[in-house]
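PROTEIN–LIGAND DATA SHEET

This sheet pairs a single protein chain with one bound small molecule, zinc ion, given as SMILES. Inputs appear in the order they were entered. The predicted three-dimensional arrangement of chain and ligand is reported afterwards as a token string under its own label.
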Amino acid sequence: MMNYSNVDVWIQNASVLSEDGQLQRSDILIQDGKVLAILSSGWYQSADDRMIENENEAMLVYDAQGKLVTPGLIDMHVHLREPGFEHKETIESGARSAAQGGFTTIACMPNTKPVTDNPETVKLVLGKAKEANLVNVLPYAAITKNELGRELTDFEALKEAGAIGFTDDGVGVQNAQMMKDAMTKAAALGMPVIAHCEDDSLVKGLYVSEGEFAKKHGIKGIPNESEAIHVGRDVLLAEATGVHYHVCHVSTEQSIRLIRLAKSIGVNVTAEVCPHHLVLSDEDIPGMDANWKMNPPLRTPRDVAACIEALEDGTIDILVTDHAPHSAEEKAKGMLLAPFGIVGFETAFPLLYTEFVQKGRWTLDFLVRRLTQDPARVFGLNAGKLQVGATADLAVIDLELEKIVDPDQFATKGRNTPFTGRALSGWPVMTLVAGRPVFGAELTQSVNS
Ligand SMILES: NC(=O)N[C@@H](CC(=O)O)C(=O)O
Ligand SMILES: [Zn+2]
Ligand SMILES: [Zn+2]
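PREDICTION REPORTED AS:
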């Protein structure tokens, strides 16, 4: 008989997705930050294992009452803004927002001030994340110094300092030789190159995509080729160098065609898509409101359909938020002058659940995998599965809870979202990192019997 007398957390009556995607009513026992056991709910009523209820006085107990418990969600593309832009977000506020969205592991982009292009800044980010003590924060480092595209950073030193991959997110690497050199170096170190795909010469001064919205307002739009040209160039360079090449925030049919082709001939390419590019098109933009301005921009309904299909057929591997907080003052500058970006952590799961699972297009299992075990697989993380022995990073999600998106309730400092006022279901209510509640802690009870 198992001895469960040193359990730290006992989650009762959880709905857990099994390997074959079915929901099973389970209890989860956590000890020393790890999943000790996953048992059919009700197991303790007949067994001597009742000792669990008596021996550990510090044990936290949470009755999930049938709520979904998933592996903690993983977001491989986020902006935490620290150092340098603390008025937009800090590592602490960003990590809190992530936790509130059910995320337990997030990978942050290097377009900070200074740019995370040196070992000291990588260490600073890791130090602040440790201080915040909320979710796991994995830093990316820049490909080029100051993300200027002129000179490569010191990949070896950055890896040594704890960077998990290289990217100039925020801008595209314009020079093909520079990108090829980066890929060659990264490949030698066994590190991925993560690319924001954008050809500057095609987008100068533009802020919405080429489509109905641009037409209606008589403005020139960002063409799809501005993204796809880099994807095409880079899959060729990835083929030549053998690097793991990952495409950021895919938004066009043309990019998808190229990724599909590259995958079909065995190029080591993976890709991500954001919730907003699956749910909104340029035709939904209500007017000159900068909360609808992000990079890449919202594209045509045809691109939206292509992105959804690409995620479904595996051409796109994972979901990411591209959480990009900006201050209200910055966004008030209007469509033309405001910075690109929208916040994403806290609406991601409810939005995707409401739009795709409730509407019957995806299974719950499909959605959860794209946010957990698939990002872990793509980036080689030891995370993303709820199983005995795994670190107890967990999200508790109330699929029945319906709420109106209200940015004033966000934990992020950002209020820049196009989803204000939407009625969504499937809200995270508690998040645990290594068995410790980092969001919704008040839902647990201590046992002192
Ligand atoms: N996505 C955005 O619209 N903005 C990002 C940059 C980026 O992801 O390219 C930001 O840093 O604000
Ligand atoms: Zn980007
Ligand atoms: Zn980004």
